[in-house]
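CHAIN AND CONFORMATION:

***
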Amino acid sequence: MENLLFESIRNILTAEEVQWEEKKMMGGITFMVDDKMCFGTYKGGLLCRIDPKDKEDLLKNEYASSVYQAGREMKGYVFLESPAYESRQGLEFWIKKCLVFNPKARGSKRKKLE
């Protein structure tokens, strides 16, 4: 099932003409766009990096929830249970939300190699 999800994600990114990199992170596969985490598999669902301004509306989806790390809410992220993205239309909706926010998202500071 997970391979089918990855294939669908890759097809959507290709159709959107997006260049990405896949990295193993947080126990799943993270899709990096412009060297920034865009979305990824996480604890049996999908972790999406979205515009914090859209979060309240996006959480109206019964399969979307806030993400907490070390007791603090991660403001620009939502966790999706599989029913939210099992249809092609649902998956495209969430991926496009992540892609729209990606240019505004801050990347992590990389350590410079000497």
